[in-house]
Amino acid sequence: MNQAVPPSVTQLIEAFSRLPGVGPKTASRLTYFLLRAPDHVATSLAQALIDLKTKTQYCSVCFNITEDDPCPICQDSKRDLSQIAVVEEPLDVVAVERVGFYKGRYHVLHGAISPVDGIGPDDLKIKELVKRLQTQTVLEVIIATNPNMQGEATAMFIKQQVAPLGVKVTRLARGLPSGGDLEYVDSITLLRALEGRDEM
Amino acid sequence: MNQAVPPSVTQLIEAFSRLPGVGPKTASRLTYFLLRAPDHVATSLAQALIDLKTKTQYCSVCFNITEDDPCPICQDSKRDLSQIAVVEEPLDVVAVERVGFYKGRYHVLHGAISPVDGIGPDDLKIKELVKRLQTQTVLEVIIATNPNMQGEATAMFIKQQVAPLGVKVTRLARGLPSGGDLEYVDSITLLRALEGRDEM
After folding, report:
1. Rounded to two decimals, what is the model's pTM?
2. Is the ipTM of this structure higher than 0.85?
3. What are the angstrom distances between the C-alpha of A14 and each of A23, A24, A128, B48, B126?
């Protein structure tokens, strides 16, 4: 770069810029903030980054991110073994857990089928799900993929794979989001809400 | 936190949240991005953070951030020793260097006088500037503090300190920003532009 910026500063700016949503300006602001901040702010972030990569792994049962294998949810005997919620990403497990309603287990696919991005069923943990259903006594598979094209395609594919095993397959309800305004709801959501209307 | 989130994930989310402008949602998004990204993305960021704190120091002459002391600008014999631009922060040096016009040296104050924040002249590198002017042959001090209240107060204070030494003190021109629209210029800027009007 230039005389005014030492290489270690440039390198941190570049490393921050690789993160999603962080442009060169933000990266530079974060770097100069860390230069002024007490040492432990930068070093604890560095340590946390190293720990993230050295301490975590995928749970060999559900493929969620975990430090212990199997993960705490798979190890928890109080959680219902007969239900498996299938989600795309570890963050989706966090979202479902936050509701506090679901007491079953999970299965993390690590993505969704997306031919445009070259992601097919074999790139996801779908075979592992089928194997789980063959070896464990599962009564219901709740498909909780994202309500978009990739999520729908993934849900359909899983339904086809699981159907022969005689396991009940459900998926999250489609309809109006709570707190929304009918006027601003998009027409696909409104169509799903009409199709899935409940008797009062 | 909860069963779904391993401690090392929580810790990285917390470490990211300490950065300015990074809320818990962004911190969590960055963390889960790094979980999926190749290992080197997280480890190179960690290494850059450690390097930032271990390899950099303040230049003992101008107090800019540097890996070598004196910094490359202070070591560069092609740069004019007789001019010193006084700026608040290392990022301001980068901004002035980007213009490519200035060929003198710098002096970084590391802040501006701000009684509200409890920052007085003694918290800045002002004494060090005065000492520099006493020992080096400097003809002009260009005050390039920010065009706000703190920057103005700092500029006035430095002017008072430097005046007895017989060194010429200038400051960056105030006026209309290039590419702006007169209609949208704030009245203080317009006042300065009127006061400082140039003959054509």
Report:
1. 0.75
2. no
3. 9, 8, 38, 9, 32
Q: Are B3 and A71 inside 8 Å of each other by CB?
A: yes
Which has the closest alpha carbon to B150: B124, B177, B188? B124
Q: So what CATH class is A7-55?
A: mainly alpha
* A87 contact partners, CB below 8 Å, separation of at least 6: A93, A96, A106, A107, A108, A109, A144, A145
Among residues B27, B180, B158, B56, which one has the least CA distance to residue A4?
Answer: B56
pLDDT tens digits, A63-118: 999 999 999 999 999 999 999 999 999 989 988 888 888 999 999 999 999 999 99
Q: Where are chain A's structural domains?
A: 7-55, 65-199
Nearest CA in chain B to A73: B3
A 105-164 near B (Cβ less than 8 A): 110
- Which residues, numbered 69 to 108 in chain A, qualify as contacts with chain B under a Cβ-Cβ cut-off of 8 Å? 71-73, 76, 89-91, 93-94, 97-98
Which residue in A41, A39, A45, A43 sits closest to A19, CA to CA?
Answer: A45
Q: Around B158, how many Cα atoms within 13 Å sit in the side-chain half-sphere?
A: 35
Helix, strand, coil distribution of chain B in percent, nearest 5: 50, 15, 35
Using N-to-C axis directions, what is the helix angle for A39-55 and B24-36, rounded to 10°? Answer: 40
d(CA B8, CA A53): 9
ω before B70 within 30° of 0 (cis)? Answer: yes
Beta bridge partners of A80: A104
Nearest residue to B169 via CA among B129, B111, B112, B109: B129
Please check whether residue A173 is in contact with residue A196, taking contact to mean a CB–CB distance below 8 angstroms. Answer: yes
Strand partners, B170: B142
Name the residue of chain B whose CA is nearest to A66's CA. Answer: B6
Assigned CATH for B65-199: 3.40.1360.10
- On chain B, the residues whose CB falls within 8 A of the CB of A3 are 71-73, 76, 97
